[in-house]
Design brief:
about 475 residues; alpha/beta; Nucleotidyltransferase, domain 5; 2 domains; 14 helices; about 30% helix; about 15% strand; elongated; binds adenosine-5'-diphosphate; binds magnesium ion
């Protein structure tokens, strides 16, 4: 199929052997499992277009996990290739139907989000392409697989409904294609479809052959040169195996949150307070373990963590007093303060009828806050650890004044040993009641000062576990 050429100048040139294999594969289910930028969407889109043009009477399905993902990453690639191939088309964003403008009959291509997979019941498809299945639930996949049953003869005529499916006919085989980055946590079910012998045997008894094709991001010559370097800088070595090599890896369970990103030799040091620069404070509220971290930036924008304060069983008023006591002892010359905190501090508690932020303001602390995901904040910290500015990491820690943070960075702050059954696809650091609060305080600084999340734009701060492609944002 890779030989299909619509116009001589539009011959498809595979980026790697994986793409070639994907286009040639005859199996019913084929999954292209690859790293970010390994050509998944591109080859999936090309396959879908080939199916549209080859089986013009058929119904096809192109699906991603959300409409946002579908319409901003998956379909644009289809449209780009259709334009390049000189095929005219019309996409109705209301009905989510794509039609090619060809002479004679043209089929319908349904473009859907698999978050609303129930909508698909009742439609039968000859071919299906699912992009970024890592975010798809197994139930959705099962419904999709059940819809892969349009029966047409090779000349395009539909099989009359009176002929039962049990009758042996010479029909066009139905096909399902998946293009995704792997993710053991989010889509272990797909791993099982591809690797579990029992499941594969059962599928094979039903006449369903399954094939996995692996692709590394390194094998795409169409990527910009610095793309792989950007990915390498974004992920720990374990995570890189997943995001770059496209390997199925069971990563962070029970492991240190910062893993190999933290190197004591280079991230720890002795630093002095500069009274001409603001003191940056991160605050995590809470009666049992309110926490504060004290930082500064130097003239080269290094983020320097100078101190930590973890209190026990303190009302917010007492916590604020403790903060001032700490500041007066350690940074008596501090004049300017930049303060960031947990957005939950906006809520008024029934007890005091004042919010934590309101109380802090009475103590001349003026924290600001922004809603964020834990994983985004961790990603900011991880990125800063991995970045060098003038030979020094962008984030450094005072080795004498941050004992708990140092323990946390060394591994005490870790992922849980078990996945939370209530949130099987979300892995956030273990709620240890201790380190987590100091890292939360650090995260609030990271999120407010250093996090720029703008899909489509290369940013310094990318979520590290809930991974997104640094270029597309998906
Ligand atoms: N065979 C190919 N020919 C031309 N460009 C390609 C090819 N394969 C991939 N690319 C380009 O490489 C980039 C990354 O591919 P893409 O499919 O978006 O990656 P992924 O979906 O795996 O993240 C895109 O700009 C894409 O158009
Ligand atoms: Mg893609």
């Amino acid at each position: 199929m890779s030989e299909v050429a619509f116009l001589p100048e539009h011959r498809f040139k595979p980026a790697n052997t994986a793409q070639e294999e994907f286009l040639d594969a005859e199996d019913k289910i084929v999954a292209y499992v690859g790293g970010l930028g390994s050509g998944k969407t591109h080859v999936g889109a090309f396959w879908a277009i080939t199916m549209m043009l080859t089986y013009r009477h058929a119904q096809g399905l192109i699906a991603a996990n959300t409409y946002k993902q579908l319409e901003s990453a998956t379909l644009p690639k289809v449209f780009q290739l259709l334009d390049e191939l000189g095929v005219r088309y019309h996409y109705n964003s209301q009905t989510k139907i794509l039609r090619l403008k060809l002479k004679g009959a043209t089929g319908l291509i349904h473009c859907r989000s698999l978050s609303e997979y129930q909508d698909l019941r009742g439609i039968e498809f000859l071919w299906i392409w699912l992009d970024e299945t890592r975010d798809t639930k197994e139930e959705a996949f099962k419904v999709v697989l059940g819809r892969l049953r349009q029966r047409i003869y090779p000349d395009g005529r539909p099989v009359p409904t009176a002929i039962p499916p049990s009758e042996k006919l010479d029909l066009v085989p139905t096909k399902l294609r998946i293009t995704t980055t792997p993710d053991m946590l989010k889509c272990k079910w797909l791993y099982d479809y591809l690797h579990n012998l029992e499941i594969r045997q059962k599928l094979s008894e039903d006449g369903i052959s399954v094939r996995e094709i692996k692709a590394s991001s390194r094998q795409n010559p169409y990527l910009e040169k610095d793309y792989i370097a950007l990915l390498e800088a974004s992920y720990d070595s374990e995570l890189a195996k997943q995001e770059i090599e496209g390997d199925w890896v069971l990563i962070p369970i029970g492991k240190p949150v910062f893993g190999t990103s933290f190197v004591p030799k280079i991230h720890l040091g002795k630093f002095t307070f500069n009274p001409h620069k603001p003191l940056i404070i991160g605050l995590d509220w809470g009666y049992h373990h309110p926490a504060a971290v004290f930082c500064q930036e130097d003239s080269q924008d290094h983020w320097i963590v100078l101190g930590e304060l973890l209190e026990r069983d303190k009302e917010t008023t007492e916590f604020c007093e403790a903060i001032w006591k700490y500041i007066n002892q350690r940074f008596p010359e501090a004049k300017e303060f930049d303060c960031y905190c947990d957005p939950a501090g906006k809520q008024r508690t029934s007890k005091s009828r004042k919010s934590d932020i309101e109380i802090a303001r009475e103590y001349k602390l003026y924290p600001i806050c922004k809603k964020s995901e834990i994983l985004d904040g961790i990603a900011v910290i991880r990125r800063k650890l991995g970045k060098l500015i003038a030979g020094l990491p962008a984030l450094v820690i005072d080795e004498n004044h941050c004992p708990l943070l140092v323990e946390g960075f060394r591994g005490a702050y870790h992922y849980p040993e078990k996945i939370d059954p209530a949130q099987p696809d979300k892995l956030v650091p273990f709620k240890d009641g201790k380190y987590e609060h100091l890292f939360d305080a650090l995260r609030y600084i990271g999120i407010n000062k250093y996090h720029v999340m703008n899909p489509g734009q290369r940013t310094d701060n990318q979520p590290a576990y809930d991974v997104v492609d640094p270029v597309t944002g998906y």
